[in-house]
């Protein structure tokens, strides 16, 4: 699939700033330092569209990008980069601000087509498990992507991913897509899964 255009639109710190209109949105959520910005850049074949920081918790707003592709199911949509959760060094006041903003967006956002949840392929936390459970409770079943698989030795990759799948409480057969922002491994699988989500929505609306 070709990416025709990918551009930053705006940062939102209140629900009132979320984009108007009904253009579909795909949101990316994950623990701080999970590699979310790197994955977004890799997915879009861009080097620095989403700013990568060495400081976990750097993203402190809902960042919106306008994406145009060659795929009819995803010809134009908003990609939404949500603030990372779970970083203790971020001030309590900032964490208090993030919570309601994320909840308002994920619970009430009508144009939201799907949620991509990123987890570190090597480390699953209680917050990861709680986030998946909460997303399911509000009927936002996430597409779960395991990042940083390039850091796994070939001999341990299958075993580690099975452990990650089990630790997240995913059902047998439920998708966990391994991804490397370094090699691009998993890129087409993620796009394929997002196309399936978009296609299912079209059938529901038909």
State the distance separating the first and last CA atoms. Answer: 25 Å
How is the main sheet built? Answer: 7 strands, mixed
Contiguous runs where pLDDT drops below 50 for at least 5 residues: 53-58, 87-95
How would you sum up the global shape? Answer: globular
Strands ordered across the widest β-sheet = 1-3-4-2-5-6-7
- Helical proportion? 25-40%
Structural class: alpha/beta
The rounded Rg comes to 16 Å
Average residue pLDDT: 85
- SSE topology string: EEHEEHEHEHEH
CATH class: Alpha Beta
**CATH H-level superfamily title:** P-loop containing nucleotide triphosphate hydrolases
Give the SSE layout.
Layout: E1 3-12, E2 25-30, H1 36-43, E3 62-69, E4 76-81, H2 92-108, E5 112-120, H3 126-137, E6 143-147, H4 154-167, E7 176-178, H5 187-205
Parallel strand pairs: 2-4, 2-5, 5-6, 6-7
Antiparallel strand pairs: 1-3, 3-4
Folded structure, characterized:
By secondary structure, the chain is an alpha/beta fold. It has a single domain (3-205), classed as P-loop containing nucleotide triphosphate hydrolases (Rossmann fold, 3-Layer(aba) Sandwich), CATH 3.40.50.300. 34% of the residues lie in helices and 23% in strands. It has 5 helices and 7 strands; from the N terminus they run ββαββαβαβαβα. Strands 1-3-4-2-5-6-7 form a 7-stranded mixed sheet, sandwiched between helices. It is globular.
């Amino acid at each position: 699939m070709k990416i025709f255009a990918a551009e930053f639109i705006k940062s939102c710190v209140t629900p009132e700033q979320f984009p108007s209109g009904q253009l579909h949105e795909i949101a990316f959520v994950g623990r701080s330092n999970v590699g979310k910005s790197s994955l977004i850049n890799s997915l879009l074949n861009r080097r620095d569209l989403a700013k990568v920081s060495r400081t976990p918790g750097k993203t402190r707003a809902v960042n919106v990008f306008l994406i145009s592709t060659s795929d009819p199911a995803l010809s134009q949509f908003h990609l939404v980069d949500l603030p990372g959760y779970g970083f203790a060094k971020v001030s309590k006041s900032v964490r208090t601000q993030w919570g309601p903003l994320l909840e308002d967006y994920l619970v009430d956002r009508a144009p939201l087509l799907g949620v991509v949840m990123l987890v570190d392929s090597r480390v699953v936390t209680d917050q990861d498990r709680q986030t998946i459970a909460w997303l399911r409770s509000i009927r936002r079943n996430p597409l779960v992507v395991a990042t940083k698989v390039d850091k796994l030795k070939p001999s341990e990759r299958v075993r580690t991913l099975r452990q990650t799948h089990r630790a997240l409480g995913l059902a047998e057969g439920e998708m966990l897509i391994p991804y490397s922002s370094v090699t691009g491994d998993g890129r087409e699988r993620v796009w394929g899964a997002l196309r399936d989500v978009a296609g299912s929505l079209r059938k529901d609306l038909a």
